[in-house]
Amino acid sequence: MDAYIDEYTDFMTRICHKSENTVESYRRDVLQYLTYLKELGITSIKKTTKTTVLSYLLDLKKRGRASSTMSRALASLRSFYMYLLQNGDVDSDPTVSLMTPPVEKKPPKVLSNEEVDLLMAQPKLTDNKGIRDKAMLEVLYATGIRVSELIGLDVDDVNVEMGFVRCRKSKSERTVPMGHKAAEALSEYLGKSRANMIKDPAEPALFVNCSGGRMSRQGFWKVIKQYQHSAGIMTEITPHSLRHSFAAHLVENGADLQSLKKMMGHADISSTQVYACFVDEKIRKVYEHTHPRA
Question: Is 81 a catalytic residue?
Answer without folding.
Answer: no
